[in-house]
Design brief:
Elements: H1 3-29, H2 36-40, H3 43-62, H4 71-75, H5 77-90, H6 96-113
């Protein structure tokens, strides 16, 4: 496995972890809180933002090797991860427009890979 492949996979892993963080934020947003302060200062929200920060560091580290032109392509996998995780955790079924968007994202990744 080449160094570029390892760092590209690290970038995709960062996108996956970030997607889990987004799911945690959505789960937290569905709860009722006694005050606005508690709405933003609770364990799930703070954890999510800490994970986002960690993912940003991982992304910056990966971009030492991965070409910048490849980064948006690999970050686009996050849309696929969030859709899949939303289905798994919330049973949200994507609409036709969302499915078409995901197909276009996958097609773009495939075209770039070729």
């Amino acid at each position: 496995m080449t160094q570029l492949t390892k760092y590209a996979l690290l970038l995709v892993l960062s996108s996956l972890i970030s997607s889990f963080s987004q799911i945690l934020l959505k789960k937290s947003a569905g709860k009722k809180y006694s005050s606005k302060l508690r709405e933003y200062l609770n364990i799930p929200v703070i954890t999510s933002y800490a994970v986002f920060f960690l993912c940003t560091l991982i992304t910056m580290y990966s971009l030492k090797v991965v070409p910048l032109s490849m980064s948006p392509l690999l970050d686009a996998t996050g849309y696929i991860f969030v859709t899949a995780l939303s289905f798994l955790f919330f049973r949200e079924i994507p609409e036709k427009k969302q499915l078409m968007g995901l197909i276009l994202i996958l097609a773009g990744i495939a075209v770039y890979a070729v």
